[in-house]
Design a protein that fits this description.
The complex is a heterodimer.
Chain A lengths: L2 H21 L2 H26 L2 H18 L1 H13 L2 H6 L5 H29 L8 H28 L3 H10 L1 H6 L12 H9 L1 H13 L13 H4 L1 H27 L3
Chain B lengths: L9 E10 L2 E11 L4 E5 L6 H8 L7 E6 L2 E2 L4 H6 L1 E5 L10 H11 L4 H14 L15 H12 L6 E5 L7 H16 L3 E6 L2 H7 L2 E6 L2 E6 L1 H8 L2 E7 L5 H9 L7 E2 L6 E5 L2 H14 L4 E7 L3 H9 L23
Parallel strand pairs in B: 3-8, 3-9, 6-7, 7-8
Antiparallel strand pairs in B: 1-2, 1-4, 4-5, 9-10, 11-13, 11-14, 12-13
Helix pairs in contact in B: 3-4, 8-11
The chains are: A mainly alpha, B alpha/beta.
Pfam families (chain A): ABC2_membrane
GO molecular function (chain A): ABC-type transporter activity
Keywords (chain A): Antibiotic resistance, Cell membrane, Membrane, Transmembrane, Transmembrane helix, Transport
Amino acid sequence: MTAVQRLGRDSSIIAWRNLLNLRRTPGSVIAALVQPVMFVLLLAYVFGGSLGGAEYRTFLMGGIFAQAVTFNSAFTALGLANDMDKGIVDRFRSLPMPAMAVLLGRTLSDLTMSAVTLVVTSLCGLLVGWRISASPAEALAAYLLILLFAFAMSWVGAAIGLMARSVEVAQSAGLIWLFPVTFVSAAFVSPHTMPGPLRTVAEWNPVSATATAVRGLFGNPPPSGLPTSDAWPVVHALPYSAACAIVITGVFMLLALIRFRRITLG
Amino acid sequence: MTSPPTRPAIRAEGLTKRFGKKQALNGVDLEAAPGTVLGVLGPNGAGKTTAVRVLSTLLRPDGGRAWMAGHDVLAAPEAVRRDLGLSGQYAAVDEKLSGRENLYLVARLYGFGRHAARRRAGQLLSDFDLEDAADLPSKTYSGGMRRRLDLAGALVARPPVVVLDEPTTGLDPRGRADTWQAVRSLVAEGTTVLLTTQYLEEADQLADAIVVIESGTVVARGSAAQLKARVGGERLSLTVAEPRHRSTATEILATLGEHLPDLDQRTGRLTVATDHGARSLEYALSRLRLAGIVVQDVGLAPPTLDDVFLSLTGRPIAPDGATASPGVAVVGGGAR
């Protein structure tokens, strides 16, 4: 077996174990699914009315998808911190398998979780009037892009979970950055009305790019009243968001692995 | 897979490890020949778990070297892991998985195919008397069952070297006896076992060689018999009815042998090590009676870990006394 096959095999065994764990804690799965549904309903009906009504609800979903998978990274942080705390990671590390398999197993199981989140969120979107107005290939590309972004965010969560000194720290640190990152973005509004520096941050935010690219692929135009930006990452949302996801995955995978090898041996 | 008989199955040279201000290991040397049990004896916080974590490739030492089953722990951790089974405080079972799923998971990660992993899990569940609870989540298991599951996990790949970190801490006497039996059958099959314990009796029952560590330093090594000889065979202890008789009683006890009696100032209890057991007891009582001293209560007991430490280091083991007797549950804790 080559090293890559070995990594794939061991990672999927660990991902199986993680999913089995998730299935036996339905509470946390339900919480993960309720959260995006709640955001859809809040934004669609509390804010949506003054932001464009039905048009806004269609526009909203791209942002919800990007936000929902970003929030799922908190699971990666918490899951890894928990496994370290309970001695599960020690058990794994005393077995003859690559260190990377422990981390990849976790991010793969969380990717599965994100896929389930996307299904539920899409159904909720359909209920509030969101529609896909694009070819099946484009829709598929949209979902793949969101999953690629989900994978990247999961690695950010992995790095946070490994840096945290306790489960409690992992839990709060894994959550706290999600709010500014998902709200200082084009996920739910146009960055156009934000003050100068904040607007730039929002325009270059990978969450914005992902939301914008996904809207483009699904064929969901912005509401007629919403000002649009011609900043480079907005105009080139698709390549920019894909590049961001790949770079973030690479950087945080490396950070997580370095940290993991410092905690455990080799 | 085992090393040739001339090569030790477990060997450590000058291991050091510091956590912040605490020197957890301060130059620890260990050695165990293939097919023997090495007992690492010491109180909580002595460095036992740190040593185990280094030997099991879970922790990088600051200094020193170690070999397990002939593989260098630092240079070839992967090879060590293939030949190593770890069980104890830190190699936890997954509470949400059943016993069967836990063992299946471990077997798969040792490289077993699906079918072989299922078969091995079933075999171990039956070997460790866990069949009835095999498909229940392991969080419903009793402490003893959980330890058995953990031990079974260490033996999945029939490794030549097995490390057991305090395998009986918190177990009831029956659970302890079961674990001892399991260790004996492992050794009978030629496995090398490193076992840490807080209990002298356990080391005495199982270990071919014992290393006593305290504050990260080896303070004594030898067989159980050698260690006992150093601390004296048994402990004769008594209390005299009248405090004014204590000094005379102390003089009488001093004539029993070469060991000096010790007076516990708080309880007024006199203790002396003796190599002649019941004969010393009879002799001491008759001498005390002749001197007109009334004895309130008297007892003869084998030396405890406390006695070993008192004798080796000149001070009792732990201020909190949490390690004095078997059966005291110790929950988690320790240096990470």
